């Protein structure tokens, strides 16, 4: 495995504070975020020779040519481009690939960008989603009419049946992340909630209640990466990419392993090995949380707790600011923002925590952070370890 540890750094980040952006095209949001991230780094568009973007389907304002269209829109001609789309973790995967491009001289300054406006963008647009298209592998599951949330409900129910996980433990994930969101002025939902509040909210797909599900917001973010050497001379203290791993496994729900192992079991060890650290050395984590079951499976696969032990791990307060693994310090997708694909925000909040710039709660003297995302219904995973 090529050792990319410390050869590239994140020099600038920006997250749009918008949670509603009516009639704003996602490209306009991306432009706002790209300029903000470049300003954070002390760079300009003229410095950029690499661009990564994967906006996804038409409902999110993107197409298969979105990286080309975005380059045209913002007025650059990058010599390194990446439009790899493996779902919500695409931007963590792109960060790892950008680190490789920078380390091998293919690019010097790479921007990774994402934005979407699902609150207003016409959701009835034509879709070619491989998860629902009635041909190929999908034909074996389409007759059962799976939806995204019903699939996650199945995963949660399976975890409960296998390991004794309770609805209260699932609810504690939402409660903890709302505690963090309460102090983030940009979070969509900030009012504190209790486990009882979660359990009393409407059932959406058993056992998942409404408050077990992420918010739906508009929004976007961008990350600027460059070489370790150049980052030293820029505006903000660099945050180095010291570990990276990615993996893809399956698209069909019926093909997930019986014990619910996800591709994070592959991406996580690769990232830890490259960084030369263990799960116990992570000071703060940002883990994709489309639903309360999502980070629980990741905690197990990444090695923070044993198989089937994530319910107790969460209930014991380990994800809180004073716990062993403060997680989703901005409020995560359950409370802060979720425009459709949230991987880029795990990178942004990781950088803010390592700089001491958390918009909500701040982990004291954080030095090593983990950003982890997934794609689809645990179809893909990407893990990055960042360090001061």
Automatic annotation (TrEMBL):
GO molecular-function terms, A-Z: acyltransferase activity
Coiled coil start-end: none
Record-linked InterPro entries: Thiolase-like, Thiolase_C_2
SUPFAM superfamilies: Thiolase-like
Pfam families named among the record's database cross-references: Thiolase_C_1
Domain Thiolase C-terminal as annotated: residue spans: 245-388
NCBIfam families for this protein: PRK06158.1
PANTHER family per record: ACETYL-COA C-ACETYLTRANSFERASE (PTHR42870), NON-SPECIFIC LIPID-TRANSFER PROTEIN-LIKE 2 (PTHR42870:SF1)
Protein name per Swiss-Prot or TrEMBL: Thiolase/acetyl-CoA acetyltransferase
């Amino acid at each position: 495995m090529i050792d990319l540890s410390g050869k590239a750094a994140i020099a600038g980040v920006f997250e749009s504070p918008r949670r509603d952006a009516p009639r704003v095209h996602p490209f306009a949001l991306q432009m706002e975020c790209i300029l903000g991230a470049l300003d954070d780094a002390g760079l300009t568009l003229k410095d950029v020779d690499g661009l990564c973007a994967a906006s996804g389907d038409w409902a999110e304002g993107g197409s298969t040519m979105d990286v080309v269209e975005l380059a045209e829109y913002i007025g650059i001609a990058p010599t390194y481009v990446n439009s790899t789309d493996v779902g919500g973790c695409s931007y963590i995967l792109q960060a790892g690939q950008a680190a490789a491009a920078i380390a091998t001289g293919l690019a010097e300054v790479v921007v990774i960008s994402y934005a979407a406006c699902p609150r207003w963008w016409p959701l009835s647009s034509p879709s070619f989603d491989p998860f629902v298209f009635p041909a190929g592998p999908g034909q074996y599951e389409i007759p059962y009419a799976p939806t995204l949330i019903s699939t996650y409900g199945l995963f949660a129910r399976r975890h409960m049946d296998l390991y004794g996980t309770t609805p209260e433990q699932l609810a504690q994930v939402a409660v903890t992340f709302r505690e963090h969101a309460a102090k983030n002025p940009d979070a969509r939902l900030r009012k504190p909630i209790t486990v009882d509040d979660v359990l009393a909210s409407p059932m959406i797909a058993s056992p998942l209640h409404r408050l077990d599900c992420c918010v739906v917001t508009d929004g976007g973010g961008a990350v600027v990466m460059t070489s370790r050497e150049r980052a030293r001379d820029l505006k903000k203290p660099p945050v180095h990419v010291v570990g990276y791993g990615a993996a893809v496994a399956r698209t069909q729900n019926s093909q997930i392993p019986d014990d619910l192992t996800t591709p994070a079991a592959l991406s996580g060890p690769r990232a830890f090995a490259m960084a030369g650290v263990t799960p116990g050395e992570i000071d703060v984590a940002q883990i994709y949380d489309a639903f309360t079951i999502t980070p629980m499976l990741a905690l197990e696969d990444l090695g923070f707790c044993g198989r089937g032990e994530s319910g107790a791990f969460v209930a014991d307060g380990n994800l809180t600011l004073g716990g062993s693994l403060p997680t989703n310090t901005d409020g995560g997708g359950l409370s802060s923002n979720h425009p459709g694909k949230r991987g880029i925000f795990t990178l942004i909040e990781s950088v803010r925590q390592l700089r001491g710039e958390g918009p909500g709660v701040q982990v004291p003297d954080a030095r090593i952070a983990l950003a982890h995302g997934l794609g689809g219904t645990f179809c893909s995973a990407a893990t990055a370890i960042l360090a001061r």
